[in-house]
Design a protein that fits this description.
mainly alpha; 66% helix; 48 helices; 3-stranded antiparallel beta sheet
């Protein structure tokens, strides 16, 4: 659901018909078209906005597109801030801001920086220079928005130029921009009227007959301050005692604004003064809203009268439906209202709250009720606004409003407590979320609220790895959340799918995930749909359905968009599929791109997946130093996760690298640290062999195969059966190894697995040739051998298996392989590394070879082997 658009925030200030030409400042504005940033920083009333509106009436100003956003304090929510900025950009050219707005509308939107990249790319396609102006930037105090604005500023395309109008310098890299010549600055001293400009304003524009000395004195007293000059002109208009007023003003040391506003107001009818004070509480004025606040019925006529008399009233649209007071004038009016009629304030704000509620602007209604200190009214309104704010992703706005309501008031409303808990989860504050969940549980809950609490509790139980409890709670939640409550049902079904997958119920998990996708799309949340599709793709991968997994990752990429957070996950998944299908170039491309997205968006799961796949690629490419560096880079990522299930990943990756180097003591050390994440079956099996525990290796693998068969996880099962084959081959049980290989080929042939076989190297090449020779899945086995032959850097070493041996005790296939290594002059350690064996096992094989050949050393053994035709 999109944030309601208040169009008046996007209206460009209208040029004044009675403005004073200021060519010296217009030249600086046009100079900004060659710079990245124009900063107009000056106190209120200095004429910041008026300068832009007046320049817009010049030929160059009319020819330069301008996107405008008038900011207010409510825009401190990043989602709301960027929502308006992107709408402003969309106004430059249709389609420029639309893709980013679609990403922002998700209930769980992408990180802002990812969305900004979409906007920047769209801006870069525009073929004209333009300004993007943010008015009243000083009202934005959210540090996250400042950081994101700096991110945007650093990456603006050449044709984009940012204008910031503010009362105070923003926390942006201004020194760097100055040093690079990317900044044009206008400050109070620049905006002051010169004596000539003041004379033009007071004489020609305001119609006052003043002497040069009087104009000079006014200019000096106001220091060329346009608001002061305008107030003075209003005060002088129609006065018979102008000289006396001027003398009093020039000699008076009270603050200029206080003096002049008092003089201006004294000249207005009493009912106008009353209207001004009562409506000063409003940031924007419409006839309907002013009628509601004042109890009048003629507010439209009053607003038009104020505009016609230049009483610091600015029209915000061409139809004269919306207005605002000049900020400085409004500040003074509010101060006078508080001083003269402070007792009226609560009633005025409550009337405004009622009007906002009738219009469906519930967050504005909450804000008004808060100013009136009507906290229970504010809590009731916020409770009604919670789903809309959550769905729109305005979590910061919700939290800001919530924090202004006393907790004892919020605690009286369990429905508001659970909304707070879910909002804080979205803001990654798990402790705060748990606290509000517990607060809700202190009350007697309506059935649907109790169901929402169960959904939250299920999330916490899953996070703590208490899967049975999580499963029970999510079932309770879904039984109680109404079918029409799409937002909370999607929250629950997504958690249900994750729990069922962790419990091994892939069928149930897939069903829940598909329901999550349906609900997410119905509620307008493509991000959740994309994430859920990635999970479905991984389920297909686990089942061994590589082509289906590839299709689903591509579907997720479409849903997410090329720069979405789920896009990183999807591309890494595609890279993993391409790796298994032996497209190493494609795998490298997809994983690198996906990992870059995951890094940029701080997407933890994506970074974990990306480093794991890239690490495997580096091992396959023989770049073990880089593989170790990647493993080290993963350490802080895992540490930041704080998840029990993530802690063993570092051990798994380091063990894989150590196994590739035959460093079995190190593998054993990592195996002890793996915890809940046991090492890969093939690595564990080879570790057991190196430790002389081959029987244990086979028992472990046989047990895993028995546990997984028939559970629809053929993707995992293939790798374990391959490990069985390699283990039996290592102990000389070639018939058993061939039987295992036949089973693995039967599964792999359906799904198209390649690297699961190729990564086993030389021993697998030997077994595949035997499979071809005896007709076991001959086509598939031959295809795998072709893959090996096509990769010379990782090509397996041929095994020398004689058709017949003139020995009483023939050499086994493994011994023939070792004999071939001896002929290459390899040491025992080198043979162990090449054959994936422990050094002790190699020594035993060499000893057996010497005995069967009746040779005292290697040289003599090789001589006899040649003479017998074994080599």
């Amino acid at each position: 659901m999109a944030t309601p658009l208040l169009k008046t925030k996007l209206y460009t200030p209208r040029a004044r018909t009675n403005s004073v030409p200021r060519p010296r400042l217009y030249a600086l504005l046009e100079e900004a078209l060659d710079r990245r940033l124009l900063l107009i920083s000056a106190p209120p009333g200095a004429g910041k906005t008026a300068l832009i509106s007046d320049w817009r009436a010049t030929p160059r100003g009319q020819a330069t597109p301008l996107a405008w956003v008038s900011l207010d304090e409510a825009d401190n929510d990043p989602t709301r801030f960027w929502f308006y900025l992107m709408h402003a950009v969309e106004g430059l050219h249709p389609g420029t801001g639309a893709p980013a707005l679609e990403m922002l509308h998700a209930a769980q939107p992408e990180p802002i920086q990812v969305i900004l990249l979409t906007v920047l790319n769209a801006m870069a396609d525009l073929e004209f220079d333009f300004f993007l102006a943010l008015d009243d930037l000083h009202l934005i105090t959210n540090e996250a928005i400042h950081d994101e604005l700096a991110f945007l500023l650093d990456r603006l395309p050449p044709q984009a130029h940012l204008i910031l109008l503010t009362r105070a310098d923003p926390p942006l890299p201004l020194p760097r921009l100055r040093a690079r010549g990317d900044l044009v600055e206008l400050r109070e001293r620049d905006l002051r009227f010169t004596p000539d400009e003041a004379a033009t304003f007071l004489g020609q524009v305001s119609g006052l007959s003043l002497s040069a000395d009087e104009i000079g004195a006014l200019t000096e007293r106001t220091e060329g301050w346009i608001a002061g000059l305008q107030l003075a002109a209003l005060s002088l208009r129609g006065r018979e005692d102008a000289p006396r007023f001027l003398a009093d003003f020039l000699s008076n040391h009270r603050y200029i604004v206080d003096f002049l506003v008092e003089e201006v107001l004294q000249q207005t009818p009493a009912e106008v003064q009353e209207f001004l004070l009562q409506t000063a509480i409003l940031d924007r004025l419409s006839a309907s809203l002013c009628n509601a606040v004042t109890g009048r019925s003629d507010s439209q006529a009053m607003l038009e009268w104020l505009e016609q008399h230049n009483l610091f009233t600015v029209t915000l649209d061409g139809e004269r439906h919306w207005y605002r007071y000049h900020h400085l004038f409004g500040d003074v009016l509010r101060l006078r209202l508080a001083n003269l009629h402070g007792e009226m304030l609560p009633a005025l704000y409550l009337r405004a709250a009622d009007w906002f509620e009738e219009q469906g602007a519930l967050s504005d209604a909450v804000s008004a009720a808060l100013v009136a200190r009507e906290y229970r009214r504010a809590a009731e309104l916020l409770e009604r606004a919670d789903d809309d704010l959550i769905i729109r992703g305005e979590h910061a706005t919700f939290r800001h409003l919530l924090e202004q309501i006393p907790e004892e008031v919020t605690g009286e409303r369990p429905r508001l407590c659970v909304a707070a808990a879910r909002t804080l989860l979205s803001l990654h504050d798990k402790d705060g979320s748990l606290r509000w969940t517990e607060r809700a549980e202190e009350a007697t809950l309506a059935p649907d609220v109790a169901a929402r609490v169960a959904a939250l509790r299920s999330y916490f139980a899953r996070f703590q790895n208490d899967l049975p409890q999580a499963a029970a709670l999510v079932e309770t939640a879904l039984a109680g959340i109404p079918e029409t409550d799409l937002s909370w049902r999607s929250f629950a079904t997504l958690n249900q799918a994750s729990v069922q997958a962790a419990l091994g119920d892939l069928i149930g998990s897939e069903r829940a995930m598909k329901e999550t996708i349906r609900l997410a799309l119905a509620v307008g949340d493509p991000h959740t749909a994309a994430v859920s599709t990635c999970v479905l793709a991984e389920m297909s991968e686990v089942r061994g359905e590589l082509d289906r997994a590839r299709e689903r990752f591509n579907e997720a990429l479409t849903l997410s968009g090329p720069l979405g957070r789920a896009a990183g996950w999807a591309r890494i998944g595609l890279g993993r599929i391409l790796y298994e299908q032996n497209d190493l170039t494609g795998a490298e491309r997809e994983v690198t791109a996906g990992l870059a997205l995951a890094e940029r968006t701080h997407h933890l799961d994506g970074r974990l997946r990306g480093y794991i796949v890239l690490n495997r690629l580096r091992i396959t490419q023989g770049d073990l130093p880089e593989a170790r560096r990647l493993a080290d880079r993963l350490t802080p990522v895992i540490d930041s996760a704080g998840l029990v299930t993530a802690q063993g990943l570092q051990a798994v990756i380091h063990a894989r690298i150590a196994a590739a180097q035959g460093q079995w003591d190190e593998v054993a050390r990592w195996a002890e640290q793996a915890g809940a994440n046991p090492l890969e079956p093939s690595v564990m099996a080879r570790l057991f062999q190196a430790q002389g525990r081959t029987d244990e290796a086979l028992a472990m693998l046989d047990l895993q195969v028995s546990a997984l068969k028939g559970r629809g996880v053929d993707g995992h099962l293939i790798s374990i059966i391959v490990a069985q084959a390699m283990t039996r081959l290592a102990i000389g049980d070639e018939d058993g190894a061939l039987a295992n290989l036949a089973e693995a080929l039967a599964l792999g042939g359906i799904s198209g697995h390649v690297r699961t076989f190729l990564d086993e190297g030389t021993p697998m090449a030997h077994l595949l040739r035997r499979a071809v020779a005896v007709g076991i899945h001959r086509d598939y086995a031959q295809r795998l051998l072709s893959h090996m032959a096509a990769a010379p850097a990782q090509a397996p070493i041929e095994r020398r298996v004689a058709v017949a041996q003139p020995l009483l005790d023939p050499l086994t296939d493994r011994e023939m392989e070792i004999l071939g290594f001896l002929a290459e002059g390899l040491s025992n350690q080198e043979i162990a590394d090449r054959a994936f064996l422990a050094v002790g096992t190699v020594k035993r094989h060499v000893h057996n070879i010497l005995g069967k050949l009746d040779a005292k050393d290697r040289v003599e053994a090789l001589t006899k082997a040649h003479s017998l035709g074994l080599l």
